[in-house]
Specification:
Elements (H helix, E strand, L loop, with lengths): L15 H13 L5 H14 L4 H20 L2 H10 L3 H13 L2 H28 L7 H6 L4 H19 L7 H7 L3 H12 L3 H28 L9 H34 L7 E2 L3 H11 L5 E9 L6 E8 L5 H15 L4 E8 L19 E4 L2
Parallel strand pairs: 3-4
Antiparallel strand pairs: 1-2, 2-3, 4-5
Helix pairs in contact: 2-5, 3-4, 3-6, 3-10, 4-9, 5-6, 5-11, 6-10, 8-9, 8-11, 8-12, 10-11, 11-12, 13-14
């Protein structure tokens, strides 16, 4: 109540429910004091600047990733993600946007521009120097991003920003680097360009741009929640930064359309999950060893169904003679024993030989090309 005796309703900011919501947010994202903000700025400024060390680490990372892509080695590709220094400049750009720090923004953007160009050039050189003309499966996979990649990059940016704010969480940064790929898409784009596979190159660059934009915005959100702001008196800077953030937001909206369409296309074509899963190395070796005891019978392929429903295993056997029933029974028992449970095993037996020597049924189908099923 004021001196005149009149009472006025409390402003919305003073409402108890609003204060409780603010307290909850602050408890989850406590504001940083001046010392912590300065330490964060120093850490990101140093890692966001282009330097000889930055270039050497990035170059090594691109070469490792490129060789891993050409070999189809997932382990090597993961190793390249751990070496790559590109995550820090992106997080630095996120801090620069909410802090109104043009110097840091320019420094990080310069490092990313030079790093992107260097990565593409090295990818092209790898394709030229390494024998072979076709892209590998791992390269092709980077050329088919979908909207799930956008979500991965967004939450990776949030996790990375949170890890930088909380020094005790810095051990999570290698995991964040693995979860979102920055260098592999660039290396894949360069390799695809070297093969003149422009569709794959475009898809890989689209994946890189998606990761770029969403990591910056995700980390900026974390810094904003921790109370990092542009000083209110710097109105011009605030306006410029808001325009940049708005532009990045519009970029995400534009990216959603092709990424979402790609996901729906992959679902329609059954590419969102494999039709079958491979057998373990131990099981494969045991089955192969059993068939080595039989003359004229070879183990060609095998897999586990990945669709929902009853689990089963399909084995493909080639033979130039009738397959004894004991072989089928032994392999079925071997699978149950190694997996520790009853499995429905389907045998596809393919007859080897000259076409004229094989008996043709009335329906025009090779009678020996039948599938035998053993149900447990």
């Amino acid at each position: 109540m004021n001196p005149s005796g009149k009472s006025y309703p409390r402003s919305r900011r003073d409402q108890p429910e609003d204060r409780s919501k603010t307290d909850i947010v602050k408890s989850w994202f406590p504001h940083l004091d001046r010392a912590d903000r300065l330490a964060l700025l120093e850490n990101l400024s140093e890692g966001s600047q282009w330097s000889v060390n930055f270039g050497v680490m990035l170059g090594c990372s691109v070469i490792i990733a490129g060789l891993g892509l050409l070999q189809g080695s997932v382990a090597v590709i993961i190793g390249a993600m751990l070496v790559a220094p590109l995550m820090t400049p992106l997080i630095g750009m996120g801090l620069a946007l909410v802090q109104g720090n043009f110097d840091l923004l320019e420094k990080a953007a310069r490092a990313m521009a030079i790093g992107t160009a260097l990565s593409l050039v090295l990818g092209i050189l790898l394709r030229v120097l390494v024998p072979g003309n076709e892209v590998s499966e791992q390269v092709a996979l980077r050329g088919s991003p979908n909207i799930l990649d956008l979500l991965v990059a967004l939450f990776a940016g949030i996790a990375a920003g949170y890890a930088f704010v909380k020094p005790k969480m810095s051990g999570a940064l290698p995991g964040v680097a693995i979860s979102v790929a920055l260098v592999p898409p660039l290396a894949a784009a360069g390799i695809a360009m070297g093969c003149a596979e422009w569709t794959i190159a475009f898809g890989a660059l689209l994946l890189y741009i998606t990761n770029f934009v969403t990591i910056v915005l995700g980390s900026a959100l974390v810094f904003w929640l921790h109370g990092i702001r542009t000083p209110p008196h710097r109105l011009t800077t605030i306006i410029h930064m808001k325009r940049i953030i708005l532009g990045l937001g519009i970029a995400i909206l534009i990216l959603i359309a092709p990424l979402g369409f790609k996901l729906m296309e992959q679902i329609r074509h059954g590419q969102s999950r494999p039709a079958s899963l491979s057998l373990s190395d131990d099981l494969w070796k045991a089955l192969d060893d059993r068939l080595e005891q039989e003359d004229g019978i070879d183990f060609l392929a095998g897999g586990r169904a990945s669709s929902r429903g009853q689990e089963d295993i399909t084995l493909v056997i080639t033979t130039n003679r009738p397959v004894p029933g004991k072989v089928v029974t032994d392999m079925d028992s071997l699978i149950d024993q190694m997996l520790g449970r009853d499995i429905e095993v389907k045998f596809s037996i393919l007859q080897q030989g000259i076409l004229n020597d094989l008996k043709i049924s009335e329906d025009g189908i090779l009678e020996s090309n039948k599938a035998t099923t053993v149900n447990e």
